[in-house]
């Protein structure tokens, strides 16, 4: 990390979180827990066995308007970034999406006569399935490939450019779901529950978009660089 970045390793971890609360998610996906008092980012990471440059690279990526991969291998660790992405997948699939589904059921009238309610739930389930397919493919195919790459093995059949070219945005369908709810859900006296779930969907959409950007702009170029290096060595 050099001076031009927003956050540095000597900053207090608590200042980072208060500056941008979405970094709470980043922290937990790195396996960092709260209760760090006034410790610096570096000390918190060291105490909890987390790769500090990678944590800072992601925190800065998320908080800065512009990012371009520097090409420096020392900027972050690909395997630490992969751990982070895997934990993010588990968060979306095992926690966030099921929680949104539960809240949706609570908020909409699913008694059977309401066609829009049925449509919303069906749409959501299809969406969750799509996200699962996307993330399981990354966990299984992509990360396995990259782990081999990190051990110095190139593949004849696969490269990261293939993944990048097919890496479709998964937040589009969530936008549609939001629109169905906003535009067509029948009016009721009290919309508190429905509004709460809409807030969750807005958050999830942003979270997923950022997740995909970390993959496209940090992960993919770093992996492509390893591929080039290995090819040159051959
Ligand atoms: Fe992903
Ligand atoms: Fe992805």
From TrEMBL:
It holds the Pfam family Hemerythrin. Residues 83-222 form the Hemerythrin-like domain. This is Hemerythrin HHE cation binding domain protein. It comes from Bacteroides fluxus YIT 12057.
């Amino acid at each position: 990390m050099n001076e031009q970045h927003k956050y540095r390793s000597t900053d207090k971890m608590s200042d980072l979180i208060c500056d941008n609360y979405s970094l709470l998610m980043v922290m937990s996906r790195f396996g960092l827990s709260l209760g760090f008092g006034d410790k610096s980012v570096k000390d918190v990471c060291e105490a909890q066995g987390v790769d500090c440059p990678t944590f800072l690279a992601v925190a800065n990526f998320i908080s800065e308007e512009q990012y371009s991969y520097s090409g420096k291998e020392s900027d972050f660790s690909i395997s630490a970034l992969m751990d982070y992405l895997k934990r993010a997948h588990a968060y979306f699939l095992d926690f966030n999406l099921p929680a949104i589904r539960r809240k949706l059921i609570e908020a909409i009238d699913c008694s059977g006569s309401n066609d829009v309610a049925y449509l919303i739930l069906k749409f959501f389930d299809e969406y969750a399935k799509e996200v699962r397919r996307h993330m399981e493919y990354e966990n299984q195919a992509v990360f396995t490939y990259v782990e081999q790459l990190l051990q110095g093995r190139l593949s004849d059949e696969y490269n990261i450019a293939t993944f990048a070219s097919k890496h479709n945005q998964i937040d589009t369908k969530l936008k549609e779901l939001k629109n169905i709810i906003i535009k067509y859900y029948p009016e009721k006296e009290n919309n508190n529950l429905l509004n709460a779930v809409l807030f969750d969907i807005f958050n999830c959409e942003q979270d997923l978009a950022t997740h995909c950007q970390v993959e496209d702009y940090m992960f993919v170029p770093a992996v492509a660089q390893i591929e080039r290096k290995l090819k040159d060595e051959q």
